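Handout, page 2. Input:
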Amino acid sequence: MSIVTLKNVSLAFGLKPILADADFQIEAGDKISLLGRNGAGKSTLFRVLTGELAVDEGEVWRRDTLRVSCLQQEVTTELQGTVFDVVSSGLGRLGEVLNGYHQALRQVQQDASDANLQHLEVQQHLLEAADGWNINQKVDTVLSRLSLPAEKEFSSCSGGVRRRVMLARALVSEPDLLLLDEPTNHMDIQAITWLEDFLLCYQGALVFITHDRTFQKNIASRIVELDRGKLTSFAGNFDLYLQKKQELLEIEQRHAEKFDKKLAEEEAWIRKGIKARRTRNEGRVRKLQQMRELRRQRIASQGKAVLHGNTASLSGKRVAELRHVSFSYGTHVVIKDLTTSIQRGDRVGIIGPNGSGKSTLLKLILGELQPDHGEVLLGTRLETAYFDQQRQQLDTDKTVRENISDGSDRIMVRGRSRHVIGYLKDFLFPPQQIDSPVKVLSGGERNRLLLAKLLARPANMLVLDEPTNDLDVDTLELLEDLLVEFDGTLLIVSHDRAFLDNVVTSTLVFEGEGRIGEYVGGYEDWLRQRKQPVTGAGPGRTKAGARTEKAAKAAEAEQGTVTPKTATRKKLSYKEKQELASLPQQIELLEQEQRQLEQQTMNSEFYRQDKQAITKVMSRLEELQQQLPALYQRWEQLEAMDG
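Output:
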């Protein structure tokens, strides 16, 4: 049943169309991932869905009594009260009752006068009458899962904490339609996996915008793309979307080429000599004029960013060596007895909950902080480019051009002079945007600008603190390609699981009480290598992954691709008996090969060899990880049939 419908909707800001005769429908229970380039208008579409923004043309229909809650990308600073007050305010009238009780409780804690105690008793009765204790527990649970300080003043929280507060406010209201704009920004992996669990069980409709591909694959049941004003719906997962999208682009390209060829023929005809002009068909002339107008109105597909790193000369072989390093803030132990070495060419991911000390570790490695105990030895000839997740290196009052080149028309990139307009075009900044102030840019555009600023600087070590926030998927994948090709050293703090898996070759994981574990590979490799889940500290899987896996197996069985263990067939054919007899040895050989390859990857020298050799081993490991479960399953099937 439809709860929101957009029909032939158009909306434009100036000459830029956001929606052009767009159709869109949200069904009850939908879990929709909204895709589109930075600046395409996804956040604007959210404002249309909430009714905050009126459209220029078309019809927007919402079900009567529809309750909508929205997490916007930009965080408000206008709300007052404690974190608990702000979160519970998302509950409407019930939230007011809950806030009244908590305010009365605070007054009693400060002054237990008879008047205050009497006021608390009244508020408690109101809360009980509204069945508020269950709601209170729900608010407490969300605050706990998102690691939010209930009694802290909202106005004194950092931008990242305020964003998590607004997410909690949207979640506790459990509306009919939940709109989430980049919900995983400023969240650690543990909180992200909890959010996945929550949303998988959520009964209402959900539309979300995210750059987190793992989150998207785990949650979305449908993908809707906003591209050049049109909304296109794709059933199925992200991989199917990519396949269908490529097919649509190829069809569009063929139509455009056919149209342009016809237009060129008509233009040649209209320019023929006097005799031809005297006898020309006026209807044909009008058709040509219409074609010219259509060509003028055609919005070309936005290009892809072109990212080029500006690599400096090689650093020394040793980049940094930490020997028995410990660091504390007062009585809070951040790092305890850490010994590790970072060599030239290493690609190190740093994983841990918010506030665990990831940025502190970076500052220790870079020499910006001195350890309380132990020593940090830095290598020679280091030239570092640092990506700060707060984007403090950008002056928001200056223009895009001034942030890149201090107002100059030329910039040095990879040893040659380039015009700043051409360079910024590589990062998808059109010429008309170059002299705009940075403060009017979206979050994704600011991230692209900071990348452009850093990558223009010669560096043999890149230090990236949450570089993926607000980037669209295309730019994110191009950044991954650049980092894979970068021949210097990488230090990356990120909560993007797919990004870590695709880029890093080792991880440093905060495991609680100042302990930092070192593992070979990315996030998924860490999950396989750790001995047991870390309680209350490091990131970990929740039952969301298991639920998704079970669902996939159930779907396979339903489609007939998996034979149940309790197969009804009693006798095996000769060929199946031969297969059953050979499977144990086949599995043993593959497991032996898997162990040998894993031993190779655990060797520190493995990642210093030729890239093709590394890729070959990792690809084979991936094949084995897929083959072995299938062989075990087949073995069980045949044994069940034989029994």
